[in-house]
Design goal:
By secondary structure, the chain is an alpha+beta fold. The chain has helices at 3-31, 82-95, 142-169; strands spanning 40-49, 55-58, 63-67, 73-77, 103-104, 117-125, 129-135.
């Protein structure tokens, strides 16, 4: 058998069946994936101490409220671009945000009573949504804590850059 015939044989007997198998195996999963960037509706991000979450952002309305260094509440309107949404969605997918538990806290019984820094991040899509509540003192799974901090930082940076862009236009 010649070298060319051997390559054609391997192509038709091994590589093409594997590609066909991968297509039929993964295509339904990708088609029915619950979190698609094209179905994105809104992002809600809140943070604060204890029950009071004075700092909020809602991408559907663009309402952005935060407490500045002088303890004054600043209200502004910040819209995220489509590129920002795609970036946040891809980062959430890359980090594995969709697999996070709903609550990242050391003790689920007394999380509401204590004055701890709390972050709520919610991605809303047409068919589903994902909300994660993260307490800053969480230390049970260090890798999960680091990923939650990373996701929080990415969202904060994206909102801050959108606020900066929006502020320059006005």
């Amino acid at each position: 058998m010649s070298n060319r015939a051997r390559k054609i044989f391997i192509l038709f007997s091994i590589i093409i069946p594997i590609l066909i198998y991968c297509y039929f195996y993964y295509e339904p999963m990708l088609r029915n994936a619950p979190f698609k960037s094209g179905e994105f509706v809104s992002l809600k991000y809140k943070w604060g101490v204890g029950q009071t979450l004075d700092n909020t952002y809602d991408s559907s309305t663009g309402a952005y409220q935060y407490v500045n260094a002088k303890d004054s509440i600043i209200k502004t309107n910040v819209k995220l671009r489509k590129d920002d949404i795609i970036y946040l969605h891809s980062k959430a997918t890359q980090i594995g945000f969709w697999n996070f538990p709903e609550l990242l806290a050391n003790n689920t019984v007394d999380t509401v009573d204590k004055a701890k820094l709390r972050y709520e991040l919610e991605f809303n899509y047409k068919r589903t949504s994902k909300k994660v509540v993260y307490y800053s003192d969480y230390n049970q799974i260090p890798k999960l804590r680091d990923l939650a901090v990373q996701m929080k930082t990415i969202v904060e940076q994206t909102i801050a850059s959108a606020d900066e862009r929006y502020g320059k236009k006005n």
